[in-house]
């Protein structure tokens, strides 16, 4: 069972295994149809396309963030439609360092599915390895996916607001340093970060080739930031609960298990003008 990462070579060896389900999660926040166009042009054989907005998010209300979590039962049904069953080994990939793939990884664990991993290095690693690609859309046979007990922890805006200033939790912000500081904000109407949060840009989890750093290096990075704070007291957030999953995955790879996600993230937090905002 693969529960964090799988290599391009490891996936290539299992392409003919019906128990393995590959999901193409490529996405561009600035061009939401770009991922589907890329999939139509070329993808890993057998991969089915999973859209961040349509499959991994619920409708926005203006107060629940840009990528709110869908109803878990509806999401489980959608996974079954994509051919994912409780016995499936799921592998997710994208072309952006793994942040969208990590969202699917976290959400399947949210439904209690442990056998899900991210393709290390994503689409670029797959191509670099000379592995096969295709334009053919697979004939998907639906499967029965039964929701189990969650393997992850999600926290709400109310819980974070309650704990602000008490040091009950360590908030890690996965956005770029400039957006964390309140500069160059182009996605959300309010700039800044949640008071007390520390910046951990998700791209720092990657090496020069675009794959995840080794577990020991990731552990050293996070332990330097967390000090004596236990992983279970860490809450990850970003702009909309997507790149934060990348930091959470990185901590799991590092053996620092049990950290939490604030799915609504900054886009939900800043939608309520009564919530405090920090800059700098």
Describe the structure.
- The protein is of the alpha/beta class and 280 residues long.
- Helix content is 31%, strand content 11%.
- The strands form 2 sheets. A 5-stranded parallel sheet has the order 1-5-4-2-3. The chain has a 5-stranded parallel sheet with strand order 6-10-9-7-8, with helices on one face.
- The model has no long low-confidence stretch (mean pLDDT 96).
Kindly, what is the distance between the CA atoms of the first and last residues, rounded to a whole number of angstroms?
43 Å
Rg, alpha carbons: 18 Å
Strand content: 5-15%
Mean pLDDT across all residues, rounded?
96
Largest sheet: 5 strands, parallel
Oligomeric state as shown: single chain
Class based on secondary structure composition and strand pairing? alpha/beta
Order of strands across the widest beta sheet? 1-5-4-2-3
Number of helices: 11
* Fraction of helical residues: 25-40%
Order of helices and strands: EHEHEHHEHEHEHEHEHEHEH
Judging from the principal axes of the Cα atoms, what is the shape?
globular
Q: Runs with pLDDT <50, length 5+?
A: none
Number of separate strands: 10
